[in-house]
Task: inverse folding
């Protein structure tokens, strides 16, 4: 009987990935059939001769503490993955603003658009302007950390405190990896599948350990690959990859004068272009246990919370530790 149970367990385990992928639903470019955890609003933007819609959520607390926090998502994500964070912050009295950047989530996916961190920062400021919010605490994860950094450098008067959660861009990827033009990046994006996305996340985010709570964030980007709109999504993904590679922020951390918290999962090894770097340089990229300390040294008024043996998504992988660090800094 014990042997039979072991065999059945092995069969189910082997079958699980295929079953998982079969449950992923096609999603159009605007995620029209995907319901976000809070009401979605749209800001009309006229930008670079494009008429765009920028999606955002505005989560108001029952009892306000007078503070607003803005949560900025990463490249392979959208605002929906902040659900638990937003609920807990709202319960503590914070108003929570969660944008989807242009090119991501439920926001417009323009074909002719010069993506820059300055442009994304300006778009983000437009939401605060629309809502008549003078300043806010700004939290950026992954690529959102680069947006948050540029936002803080451009509009320091609008930022009360800055939190960077495993941000990419703590190093200059151009110094490691060769250039990939946008057409090449686009062809690479077109090859993505649920399996390639999962393998990437296992390698860089979760240390080859998959948990059920990771699945929704795979489903969202994998669902795009199954829809006829995917070339539109992939094109913007290629443009933003080029932006990350060509617009480093690491040289300007020294110019940040806002109180800053770095929340760093030290197991993270995320680095743009690592596959294109020489073999001898690849192990030197994305060393977050070193990059966190280096960045804290660069930012004068900064604190560093290192989360040992945690990967790229602390607010998903070890939520309680993440939230404790965040709340202690902003309360």
Result:
């Amino acid at each position: 009987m014990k042997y039979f149970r072991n065999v059945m367990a092995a069969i189910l385990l082997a079958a699980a990935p295929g079953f998982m992928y079969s449950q992923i639903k096609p999603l159009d470019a605007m995620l029209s059939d995907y319901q976000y955890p809070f009401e979605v609003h749209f800001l009309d933007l006229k930008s670079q001769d494009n008429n765009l819609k920028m999606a955002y959520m505005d989560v108001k607390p029952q009892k306000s503490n007078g503070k607003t926090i803005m949560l900025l998502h990463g490249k392979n994500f959208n605002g929906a993955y902040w659900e638990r964070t937003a609920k807990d912050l709202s319960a503590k009295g914070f108003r929570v603003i969660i944008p989807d950047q242009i090119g991501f989530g439920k926001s417009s996916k323009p074909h002719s658009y010069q993506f820059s961190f300055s442009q994304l920062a300006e778009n983000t400021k437009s939401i605060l302007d629309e809502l008549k919010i003078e300043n806010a605490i700004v939290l950026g994860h992954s690529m959102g950390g680069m947006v948050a950094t540029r936002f803080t450098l451009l509009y320091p008067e609008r930022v009360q405190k800055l939190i960077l959660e495993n941000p990419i861009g703590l190093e200059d990827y151009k110094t490691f990896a060769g250039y990939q033009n946008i057409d090449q990046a686009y062809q690479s994006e077109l090859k993505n599948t649920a399996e390639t996305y999962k393998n990437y996340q296992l390698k860089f985010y979760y240390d080859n350990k998959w948990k059920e709570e990771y699945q929704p964030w795979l489903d969202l980007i994998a669902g795009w690959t199954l829809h006829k709109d995917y070339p539109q999504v992939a094109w913007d993904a290629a443009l933003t990859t080029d932006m990350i590679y060509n617009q480093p922020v690491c040289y300007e951390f020294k110019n940040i004068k806002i109180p800053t918290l770095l929340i760093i999962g030290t197991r993270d090894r995320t680095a743009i272009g690592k596959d294109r770097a020489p073999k001898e340089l690849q192990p030197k990229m994305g060393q977050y246990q070193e990059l966190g300390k280096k960045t804290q040294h660069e930012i004068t008024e900064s604190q560093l919370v290192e989360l040992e043996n945690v990967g790229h998504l602390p607010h998903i992988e070890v939520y309680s530790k993440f939230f404790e660090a965040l709340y202690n800094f902003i309360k």
Observations:
- Residues 33-177+250-330 form a domain with the Rossmann fold fold (CATH 3.40.50.1820).
